[in-house]
Amino acid sequence: ASPTAMGHDGENATRVARDPLARLLWRLDLQPLGDDRFRVEPGRGEGRVFGGFLLAAGIVAAGRTEVAGHPHALHAQFLRSARWGTPIDWRVDRLRDGFAFATRRVVGAQGGQDVIALTVGFTAQERGLAHQDPMPPAPDPAGLPDWEDLRASLLGEAGVRRPPGPIEMRECDPELAVPARGRPARRRVWMRPRGTLPDLPLLHAALLAYASDRALLTTAGRPHGLVSGPRFAASLDHALWLHGPCRFDDWLLVTSESPVAVAGRALALGAFWNRDGRRVASVAQEA
Q1: Which residues are catalytic?
Q2: CA distance 77 to 119
Q3: Can you give the pTM of this predicted structure?
Q4: Residue 198 CB-density burial (10 A; 0-12 exposed, 13-18 middle, 19+ buried)
């Protein structure tokens, strides 16, 4: 079934043009090409295609291959920068379909060159041993500054403020975002979609993967007095673990840290928590 459940009629096209979340869902409605192959149109934009979009599209492609259960793990390598305005073709290999776990290998290519390679694991297992650390304290998202407003202020250029995207992000510690060497490589933000998602678990997982590529680069830049700008950095590889079927229809607290950077390559680790204190996902990235 279509992950967006929207259809591509003229009325929806008008709404999509002005709604960033609807536009993302529209693009994630991959076109089937047969034999576990799909195509996505990234649309128009500036710079390179956001890595989180590639992660989300990869999960959707994997989930379109008659796989049971929900995504529990994603491991990806960004191979080349993807360009706007050029279709991205996806090919999926069904590596394993077991009793409780299944694995798909997904490769996205643009213009004949691979731009991302990832594996996505799915599980139908619902019971077993469980534990987690407690959720760290954080202020309520209401009243906290929007990250895009704060980022534009820190960069000192109103023109660098990006238009509202599909994910809203609120900064918990705006005073620590002011560029200064020696800042701790830690960050707390709240994230949520700018609208309502269809009641489709695969799509909630895809949107969380999209959001998991936010905040980590800035976390790694804080000890060096850096704020993410037009030529700040790029993701190299990315891992995401989903700790159960996820819902991404309310605020999630994202805590992140960068314990080490060597030769310009920084490692960032993060966790997603819902308002009830449950850890819903974990992420690791080298950038």
Answers
A1: 213, 235, 285
A2: 9
A3: 0.91
A4: middle
